[in-house]
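Hi Prof. W.,

I finally got the Chaperone SurA prediction working! I wasn't sure whether to trim anything, so I left the full sequence exactly as given:
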Amino acid sequence: MKTNNLKKLFQATVLSLAMTSSVPVFAEYNDQVVAVVGNSAILQSDLEQSVAEALHQLNAQKKEIPPENVLRTQLLNQLILQNAQLEQVKRYGLKLDEKALNDAVMSVAQKSGANSLEAFQQKLDGIAPGAYELLRSRIANDLLIQRLRQQQVMSRIKISDQDVENFLKSPEGQAAVGSQAHVLHVRVSGGQNAAELQKVAQQVKTELNQTSDLKLIEKKYSTGSIQVQGADMGYRALSGIPGELAARVSVLNPGQTSELITVQDGVHVLKLIDRKSDEQKALVPQYKTRHILIKTSEIVSADNAKQMIDSIYKRLQAGEDFSTLAATYSNDPGSAQDGGNLGWVSPGMMVPEFDQHMQNIAVNQITEPFQTQFGWHVLQVTDTRQQDMTHEYQQRMARQILGERQFDTEVDAWLRELRSNTYVEIKDPNLDPRKANKS
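And this is what came out:
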């Protein structure tokens, strides 16, 4: 979900890279334990490294440096929180595959001008021995913490269908999906006093409910002291309409008028004629698909599964009924009793191997047996269509935007809970606000 959050997590890592040439690596510092976090320990060298990096950053940005004890306390708390999260990473057994780590390190390497991991390693280790492994370890920890946060925090985010629909009707939501509105805009100004202005504006609103003839309304309600001016704004993107007006338009149905909007230059009334999306329709190819799956098990070996699917394929080629064979042999409980039918399937819904065969097979042809993580398959596409998924995509976009809004708030709440539920013992009383206050 969170590309932006991932970038934030990498900021400190990239910063460390930039500082490597001038910040010492405290690998051999007098490593006494400064804090115990769960089953792990924070060493003096860890804290000194963090202090050195923070001072370098503050000096580079020409920011005021806080008192030493305040800075060290803040940095120790950051390390405690990081260790608490890494403890959770171990608890849940989260692992990072080598390719994902290499890709992340390579992304940092390219920012430094290196075109390979080998060149990057030589560059860093030439500046400070062990710097490459230190950076690689930090990136790995960042990625694991990001994965932990997504796993733990996403389950806390609740977005209802009503939340989605409300967002899509809002000015922000309609701007996000490219919504346009055809709006009539009438301004009533002048008058001897506010009461007179409001009275005429209400009459204009009533008239506007009955007609869209702006010239008629202007002529009927303009007087020597009251000016009524109407404008057909045509189709306008809600993102291009002043926020106060867009907010009023977004809740209207076609044919409805807004409440009176009193501002400094008069009283405004809006009428929504129509709304449309300026986005092209999201037409997605779909495939009406059925398949037969043979899984391996304690009873069925990999070789036996392959033999079974080959036999089924030959029988299909010989003209036997697909539905009957699926109902008899398929190990997919969700589709077997329905003749192997999966219904209309969009690209990306299935695992890549299945997806590829589904999209490349001609209608009514049967694929040769192929293997996925679930077992051996044969599939048949019986029909194709282009499906308008615009609304579904807009809903997905809305959920993503709303989820990202909630994510940072929920991360903060989760981190506070994690910190309060983690055993922490700070050895140096000068770095523990609770002990410092008692002394």
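The chain has 16 helices and eleven strands. Does that look reasonable to you?

Thanks,
D.
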